[in-house]
Amino acid sequence: MRRHQAPLYRLAVRVLDDRQEAEDVVQDVFVTAWRRLPELRDDAAVGGWLYRAATNRCLNRLRDRRALPADAFEQLPDPRPGDQPQRVVEAAAGVHALAAALRGLTPEQRAVWVLRELHERSYAEIAEALGTTPVAVRGRLARARADLAEAMTAWR
């Protein structure tokens, strides 16, 4: 289960935009998994179960607070010695614009986008994590991409 801790934490931070809340979600998921360990016999299924539990807890927390706070992309990579200052500033502004656009998505669209684009999960894995169908995942992802493309028009 340890190998799942860092990816689950990254997922929760990106969906929730709150490191402390992400830590709480991951801890809750692992406590629940520990309690349900006898039921989780299939090692291959444990990863999927953990992702589903973490995603559902994140979505529940988003629904509870109904607003998305500061961006999940606050840690920008350090500029390299040869980078031009203007490019560094532009890149940071682009990341902040993307974070703002992500906050405009519904919690479900945002979760689908994060799982697909940042965690490179398959449609089937995302559907399992969200308790829906791959067709619904495709629809939500298409809508999320369209909304993000519209919001990011100035950055093209």
UniProtKB/TrEMBL annotation:
InterPro entries: RNA_pol_sigma-70-like, RNA_pol_sigma-70_dom, RNA_pol_sigma70_r2, RNA_pol_sigma70_r4_t2, RNA_pol_sigma_r2, RNA_pol_sigma_r3/r4-like, WH-like_DNA-bd_sf. Residues 97-148 form the RNA polymerase sigma factor 70 region 4 type domain. One of its GO terms (molecular function) is DNA binding. Coiled coil: none annotated. Gene3D superfamilies: 1.10.1740.10, Winged helix-like DNA-binding domain superfamily/Winged helix DNA-binding domain. It comes from the Bacteria. Residues 2-66 form the RNA polymerase sigma-70 region domain. The keyword DNA-binding applies. GO terms for biological process: DNA-templated transcription initiation. Keywords: DNA-binding, Sigma factor, Transcription, Transcription regulation. NCBIfam families: sigma70-ECF. Belongs to the sigma-70 factor family. ECF subfamily. This is RNA polymerase sigma-70 factor (ECF subfamily).
